[in-house]
Amino acid sequence: MALTKCSECGNQVSTEAFACPQCGAPRRQALKYSPEVPPLPTSSSLSPDKKAMPEKRKRFRYIIGSLIIASIVIEVIVWETKSSKSFRTASASHTLLQSSADEEAKQPTRWELIQKLIRAGVFIKVEQPAEFPHVYVGATFYNLTFDEKEQFINVIWAYYKTKNPAADLVVLKDGYTGKEIGKYAEVYGGLKMK
Q1: Tens digits of per-residue pLDDT, 143-194?
Q2: How far is CA 64 from CA 78, 87, 150, 186, in A?
Q3: How far apart are alpha carbons 64 and 80 in whole angstroms?
Q4: C-alpha–C-alpha distance, residues 137 and 173, integer Å
């Protein structure tokens, strides 16, 4: 242990001391490095528990997915409210098409909504391989209420029914397995799930 002179008061101070015992002034060399001073935290020691991260990501994805679905549901409700003059609601809660001129004018809006539902993961794709359109549903579709499912499928039904009056049925298929999971038609009173 060596002694040095304090820069403030001139008193003798040990080289191992952090400060002068007389005046309390810190020693400059002691501040630069001392094995007794704990190291600063690194980015790896500040990172959260690795097991907690997937749970946070799942929660975040669930919240984002819910917000997307909610915005689409609101858009469908607003769209139905605006277009209620051109639709007549039957007692079985499905809609009948009115005049073809009114329905043709709504086709671009319907197509835009169908594309939004595909982007949101509600549907994977919509195609018409034969007379009736087939809707391949995504994982998000299964989280919807029955009424939401029926409203979304009704938009597809109205779109294809306007294009081809003989296309009065929509076939629902699972987007991953390709198996039929339901149908939508006037004769069923709307949506019929298996």
Answers
A1: 999 999 999 999 999 999 888 888 889 999 999 999 999 999 988 889 999 8
A2: 21, 32, 22, 34
A3: 24
A4: 6
Q: For residue 53, with 0-12 CB atoms within 10 Å meaning exposed, 13-18 middle and 19 or more buried, which class applies?
A: exposed
Q: Is the pLDDT of residue 106 over 80?
A: yes
Count Cα neighbours of 60 within 13 Å in the Cβ-side half-sphere. Answer: 6
pLDDT at residue 85 greater than cutoff 80: no
Q: Read out DSSP for 35-63?
A: TTSPPPPPHHHHSPPTTHHHHHHHHHHHH
Neighbour tally for 189: CB within 10 Å: 13
Residues recorded for the chain: 194
Q: Where are the domains of the chain?
A: 53-193
Q: In this predicted model, which residue has the larger pLDDT, 53 or 5?
A: 5
